[in-house]
Each structure stands twice: as structure tokens, then as C-alpha cells.
Amino acid sequence: MDMQNTGQDSGARRNPRTIAGKVHPLSSPSQQKSLHEYQNALQWMQEGKYEKARAAFEKLSRDCPVEIRERVHIHLAACSRHERRDGLSFSNTEEQFDYAISLLNTGFYEEARNQFEGILAADHKADYAYYGLAILESMTGRAEPCLEHLAKAIELNQRNRIQARSDSDFQDMADDPRFTELLYPEIP
Q1: Which H or E run contains 155?
Q2: pTM of the prediction?
Q3: Coil, helix or strand for 64?
Q4: What are the sequence ranges of the domains in the chain?
Q5: Which residues of 23-39 are buried (b: 16+ CB within 10 A; e: fewer)?
Q6: Is residue 86 very low, low, confident or very high in pLDDT (cuts 50, 70, 90)?
């Protein structure tokens, strides 16, 4: 007997069958719709829109295909965790700033932005929050807002100019002449 022709070839893909032995369609319109809704919910989650993503995942959890049900429940739990974290309270803005920096360092840019903006909502003269936003904009490749936030941070506290000169988080801005001009202004 030829062992290679037994149908047990691990490389062959087999279509799933129902109990009655009928082949499942690979992608029904309802499965395609669920997949599209799942991708939208993932996008909202990546954008930091956890409430919107959670609502979409909750809807999907009721009637999604079995193939993605476990992932939907995992993402639903993650959205809930993020929403609880957004409800954090801080004893002062410096504590909130430290939290924002930790988010920034772990790549949660939108959450970090929300924290920096929360600090500024409480104290519009918080130079360190403008500085944090400048770093965030530099790290995400947004030169214009980076320069605006850094200029405001320097306006509020001249020490930010000295700090920015050696801050490696601004390495992507080093070749921009406007950045150099901001850090090393000509003295009349």
C-alpha cells in the first residue's frame, strides 16, 4: 500500500463538514459581514476608541462565527480593561504625567495624548505636558505639532530648551532647521 496516497497528507487542506456531511461555504455573506465588523472594532481599539470598540465586540459576541468568537471575547475584555484604566484618578498632575510617559514608552500613543491633554485641561500652564506632547508628536512623525508644543513648553519654561537639546526622543527632528532654530535661537 502506498502511504502517500492515503488522504492523510498533512499538507492537504480539507473543507470542514457538517454532521450531515455537507461542505460549509468558505465565506457566507453573514461571515463576511462579521469579519468586516470585527476589523472595524479592531481599528477602533487601535485608535484608542475603546467604548466604541467594546460596543462592536459585544454585538459580535452574540452572533459571530465560531472561528472568531474566542478572539472577540479576548478583545472585549481588553477594551473593558482600557476603559477602567481611563477612569483612573491621580493625586496630582505630576503623577498623571508619569503615567502618560509610561504609556508613551510602551507605544500607547493615543492614551498618552489623552493624559497629556487631561493635564493641560487642569492646568493650561503645565509646561511639562506640552513637552510630553512634543515628544509624542516627534515619535509619531508629526513635525508641525511637535514644534508647536515644544515652542509652548519653552515659552512657559526656558529649561525645556536645554533639556530638548539632549533628549533622544527628538532624534527624528534633528535635521529640521526649525527645530534647530527653536533650540539654538540667535541672540541679538
Answers
A1: helix 143-156
A2: 0.56
A3: coil
A4: 28-87, 93-183
A5: eeeeeeeebeebbebbe
A6: low
CA–CA separation, 161 and 96 (whole Å): 23
Closest by CA to 183, choosing from 139, 157, 150, 135, is: 150
Give the whole-angstrom CA distance, residue 98 versus residue 116. 10
pLDDT in tens, 10-30: 444 444 433 344 444 446 787
Which H or E run includes 79? helix 66-86
> Could you please report the per-residue DSSP string of 94-125?
HHHHHHHHHHHHTT-HHHHHHHHHHHHHH-TT
Residue 36's pLDDT is: 86
CATH number, domain 93-183 = 1.25.40.10
Of all helices (H) and strands (E), which one includes residue 35?
Answer: helix 29-46
Residues 6 or more apart whose Cβ sits within 8 Å of residue 167: 135
C-alpha cell at 98: 508619569
